[in-house]
Specification:
alpha/beta; two-stranded parallel ribbon; 10% strand; eight-stranded mixed sheet; 2 domains; Alkaline Phosphatase, subunit A; 12 helices
Length: 465
Amino acid sequence: MMHTSRRSFLRGMGGTTLALPSLESFGKEVAAAEPARRAAWFYVPIGVVRRGFFPGEAKAGIPKFTGSRKQMTEGVRQVPVGSHPLELTPTLKPLEEMREKVSLITGMDRTFQPGTDVHAQCASCFLTSASAFSVTQSPYPLSRSLDHIVADAIGRGTPFRTLEFSCNSHKDNKESMYFDNISWYGTGHVAPSLRDPRKAYRRLFGTKEINAYRNITNLVLEDARSLRRRLGYSDQQKFNEYFDSIRTIEEQMEKHEEMREQLAEVRIEEPAEALLPRGEYIRLMGDLMVVALQTGLTNVATFMVGPERWDTPYLFESLFEKPRSHHGMSHNQGKYLDDLLKVDHFYMEQFAYLLNKMDNIREANGTSLLDNTIFTYGSGLGDGATHQYSALPIIVAGSGGGRLVTGKHINLSANSGPVPKEGGPHPKGEGGMPLANLWLTQAQAMGLRTERFADSTGTIPQLTA
């Protein structure tokens, strides 16, 4: 057995701060140890087109934008309360390969505090779920978000207690920070997100020699060569796979740098970065997040695909010929229904890409990174046209080390379909369960000893294994 700890190995690698995955050759006690628990959240803005996302709503009426929670109820098939086999609707189809490792949660509501902006509140309060008017220092019911609370239990031993990633590269900050952030240290104290792939890479994997060595893997492999010869076959495979992923990220960033330089010479109305293909940008930022979770740089991460109500358009490659505004289209589902369904499917493809990547990363005990993570897809709106805070689109992937049930559709409200209501988002959810119940369930699965989170009324027993 090799008497070399990961800590001493990293200290001897020429000043690098690059973390490595667990290797069996470092000792039997390391190989036998239970993998770390991780938690991550994948936030999608503007809600979804319900007829493409939710089981039973394929024939529902197409809502008109009213700025309220008025919805169409014709054609909706009510799903009974309880646990059901997972039905993959058109928007959920990209999850086919991962269907046994994801659960669809329907019937979750959030409280809306009247007198504030719908989009800003749905994003900024997504992971806080504070009760209406319970916070006086902010216009929104915004307190410390769940990711930082979970990090109290599983993030203390990592270099970064939490990491925040965003795929909003625009510099035209038309809206306030409440539209563009889901992670908060506390009321009014935002946790700044990493938005530029190269800056994120240097923060996570930077070395003093990075200006002299453009390829970090060459530097690390040179220092590690003597150790590598003594690794067992299994560890050599892990070692090669890990550094191949780092090299791939570097190559992708080089391509993005070249594209930025070319686009900077073209006169356009929006920032050059915004014209980078959305899918490549999202996947690259996602790759960085996955490697950070894999190597133990952090156990807690948030990933915001895009901001709320940011009217500057994005270029969705393979979908449209020119940049489009997701928010603008959402206000007219009748006209842009097919285009909006394409955007929803596109974002689900990016989520599925990350799930597959995490499921292909083996941990020391033979399980996958995804198996030991609770990775949640969600939005603060149930529908971009109606601005509803009820029946939110939520998918929970991974089991957190076997603590959560997967492969199911868990409906928590007999009235999870559209609910007609006039006069703006209602202060209370109607017929559903507080979203905070899901957050409490996840917090307990991560090891927190708490019986309440924000406006929770209990946990979700159907979700716990």
